[in-house]
Amino acid sequence: MMLAAFNAEPIHELKPRDKSKIESLLAYGDRLLVGLSSGVLRIYRVNELGAKKSVELLREEEKFSKKPVQQLAVVKEANLLVSLSDGSVALHDLQTFALAERLDVTRGATCFAVISSVVKDGETGVPSLVSRLAVGVKKKVLLWTWRDMELEDEVATVGIEAVAKSLTWITGSRLVVGLDPGFVLWQVESRQPTPIFKTGGESSGARFGAVNSSGMGYVAMVSWVPKPMATCLTENQILLAKDVNTLFIDTEGKALEKKQVPWASAPEAVGYSYPYLLALLSSERGTLQVRNPDTLSLLQSISVPGATILHVPQPNISLAHAGKGFLVASDRTIWRMNALPYDEQLHELINQRRFDEAISLLGLLEDTLIDDKQAMIREFKTLKAEDRFHQQQYRLALDLFTDAESPPARVIALYPRSVAGDLTTIHEVSDQSDAEPAAAGHECPHAEDEIASKEAPATPSKGVLSKLRVTASNGLRDPDSTSTRVASPARADSDTAGSRTPSVKPASKPLEGEDLKLAARCLTSFLAQARVKIKKFLSTEGTLKESQISMDPETGRPAFANLLPGSLFDDSSDLSGIDLGSELLKTAQLVDTTLFRAYMLASPSLAGPLFRLDNFCDPDVVRTSLYESDRYCDLIDFLHGKKLHRQALEVLAKFGKGEAEHADVIPENMKGPRRTVAYLKQLPPELVDLIIEFARWPLEEVAELGMEVFVDDSGYSEHLPRDKVLHLLKSMDEDLELKYLEHVTSEWNDQTPEFHQRLVDILIHKLKSQDQQSDTYPDVQIKLEAFLKESQQYNEKATLQQLPTDEPRFYESRAIVFGAMGKHKEALSIYVYSVKDYAKAEEYCNQTFLSQQQQRQQSTDGATINQQPTPVFGNAFASNKKGSQSNVFATLLGLYLKPSSGQEKRWPQALGLLSRHGARLPTSSTLELMPDDLAIADLQSYFIGRKRNVVSITREMEMVKALQGLQQINADRRLLIGPDATVEEGRRGGRDRRIRITEDDHCKLCHKRFGASAVRIYPDDTVVHYGCVGKKPSNIRYGWRRG
Prior knowledge:
alpha+beta; Methylamine Dehydrogenase, Chain H; five-stranded antiparallel beta sheet; four-stranded antiparallel beta sheet; CNH domain-containing protein; Vam6/VPS39/TRAP1; WD40/YVTN_repeat-like_dom_sf; WD40_repeat_dom_sf
């Protein structure tokens, strides 16, 4: 079918008795001038469409010319009518048509061309209206110029190599001249014509339009040589035609890379009526072809019997001509070509399934001629993609959908339920209905109604868009339209593998088998790009990234409107009642869910990476699909990504305990509690109740593995609420509780008193409940005693009450607790009288003494340097003042020499203590403990130790004093002469530093001289007034001493 872009309306026909023939036409405004072969000029008024008479004869100039009027034109600004007759050009008054001037220099003229344009003066920039008349006279072109309605005196002339056969203005100052040898371009300013060459330029040596006369006789060559023609198509594209050959050039005369116009024979005339390329074919003598200048496709052939004249009123390439007709004439008839509205033309192209032509034509039209042009282009591309999809060209179709930015919902709806879900527009016929054609035949009308009711959401549209969408969609499903559908060619590439022959109604049957897999694979690339676009506007939480949605000023829609179903914008122009964020979220959910379905169908291995990332997949769809396909690992990953942790843990528990229906298909890595433990370790502390609930069965199965949930250092274990964890472990097993408390107090250094006390209670309880011969008893006892020594957070009194006083195995533990309470005498009594381990008693004293020394040292950190240093071994002559801390060594010595009732004195241990730690014992109290009958020789080691201690303290004080003297000397030296670096550089520093200020020096801040004012000198020798300190500007650079 052909497009009906124009309707041919015969508006005038010469009467039978009129022997004249029509030679030329000129239309301007509502006037039509007709030049006849008899030299008569007739003036008609052209009426609007629908009038009773199309034209009315206003006047007739019988003496206009003695010869046929071959060409007419108008210089409207100069109120002149230009005519070509009897080989010369004449100027007439446009109102009276009287002869104003006959241009004698134009005798022998073959053609002329007129143009008017606005030109700015090169110096002043003032615009002026310039009209030019170019006349081809033999082998030269003459040029007359009117500037602001005044004719210039100079007539420009340029020589050409042959007689001019056609003249065409392509700009206000550039003229294409058609010759038998070819075409030349004349730039008025240069006065030098330039030949026009084919693609490749002058270097190719091929001049376009050159005549090759080899093998032809003279007479044959003269009759055969076709007329060179040219016409402007757009502002920067010109068509040159000679015979059946064509060439497209720009305004510079350079050839454009464009194919030939496929004319079957040489055209009689060519022209351009916005936005179509026109041609009257000479061979058919009466056929007007209308072509798309972009695709060069034939859109319409109009029968105009005997037509030889094509006249398009100026301007023919601008919006001023949009929608207006043109004229075609034969010897006796004039036709007016009335243009149909552009929306109707586009609608007709879509009905004919000529989507490329519709898209191309829409691209040629200006935005002001079409409502929401961009939306219509997207709609046409979408319709083309749908057509290719139904032709099983899936890869091409999905690429077109992507290029058109089609709404995902509309594309997804083309797929069957297995991919599109409830959004599908395909009615899937059941096997039972296939087996019973009669029953299916009764249900068929209802099925069609259902298909129509599930029409895919459309893109945003205006005006004709809705009508185009409905008609095109119906065309895709109309059985009668299959005859116009181009059959898909045989394809051997991977994209078309598995193609099936289209049935009578391909859109009403679901895709199947390999064909469906191929279509699904193509769909994945489209949906992946849609996800990228959605992420620009939607956060991973499902909310818009921008709280304030910016609307397009032209369409009044958000930037992501193309992602939403077109039905949102079809019914209402007011978007205030639409939750755009919610609609975009729905689209994201649809895209991700469909992408998952497509992956599962065509490329199951790609489904896993999808839901391991942030996604909006429908959990029910994904869970059901993965579970039915036995992809349990992917199911767990998906549930974790969607934060459906309870459902994931329930599945893991079911599989880990072996309670699944088909235990044979459960992966090995999901059997047992290990996978559950790994999952629990990834959960945040906020889900502690869920963690505790599902951690119970791993602890019951494999306690050591289950404890990793609470003591692992790689996850969130350290941040879990410890009281809740302890409550769980306490209810299960005391050993698990003990392990957790040990980890909390030692590894995480938790100083909570309740945890420390609970750990002590458990250890004591285990010791009491175990036999001393048990293998684990020594380890527990060592743990208890070590913890009692290290911890300072447990309750000493409560602990002491739990330790039996009559069981030797708890003696040392009680001693440690007494020591923690500061009751050193009670602790030492246990070591001396109960345990009778004098080495431990002495070690206890040593550790306690060092701890006391460290405390005293910390308390004297703020003392001045002149104070006497604390002796390393203590003050041997210090007396026990009231309120001072008791000497633990003196306490132990008292237990040795003044035992309680029932105990004997321990002289050997006492003398050994005196010899090893005598310097740490107070002198007066130590000697008072010595009996009168004790030999002095036995105290020799004690006195030697005391003497050595005094000497050591004296020498230590001398060394400290000497070091302090060196420090004082260095400080004095730096104060007097400055740091060592300053001295090495040869500069004066310290108190020896000198700064010389002269009368020429001035302050850096106030820029005044110093005089006798007080000054401040900075370390880098910068000098300022003392009163200017604190007023340093930002541009001051210290280090410049002089101003």
